[in-house]
Specification:
The chain is mainly alpha-helical. It has six helices and two strands. Helix 2 (about 45-55) crosses helix 5 and helix 4 crosses helix 5.
Length: about 140
């Protein structure tokens, strides 16, 4: 094998090793900050959250309490992580933390949908660290 062939082979091996590592680290990288106006949930997720809210929460809460102007005035300037943390640690009242993280995220997606925020192509994450990077910024009217 010539020196040039060895150099080409070394470069190909390096690429074969590095490309998957770069892709993997990009998946694990903390998400960039986004806003609820960027389409951070899907319509399917919001629909699942609506059904769960109706089954689990309507004995004590109404949709209006947690959406629209009420949602905006309470959570503007916070993150979805702040909201997730409160809800997942205190609800349901008779079983705080009793739902799966994905179920809490679905309920929050329902709140966002009912508040008029646009859906996106990816579901709202269900891990607190990712949710802390999603700002609740209410647009000025």
């Amino acid at each position: 094998m010539t020196g040039k062939q060895r150099a080409v082979l070394s470069a190909l091996v390096a690429i074969a090793v590095l490309v998957p590592l770069v892709a993997l680290s990009a998946q694990d990288a903390p998400p960039t900050a986004t806003s609820i106006g960027d389409g951070v949930f899907t319509s399917d997720q919001a629909e699942r959250g609506k059904k769960l809210f109706q089954q689990t929460c309507t004995g004590c809460h109404t949709t209006a309490e947690h959406t629209g102007k009420n949602f905006e005035s309470r959570w503007n300037g916070s993150t979805v992580g702040d909201l997730f943390e409160l809800v997942s640690n205190t609800m349901p009242e008779n079983d705080p933390g009793g739902l799966k993280a994905e179920e809490y995220a679905g309920i929050l997606a329902f709140f966002l949908s009912e508040s008029g925020y646009k859906e996106g192509t990816r579901e709202l994450p269900s891990d607190l660290e990712s949710l802390k990077h999603i700002r609740i910024d209410v647009p000025a009217k």
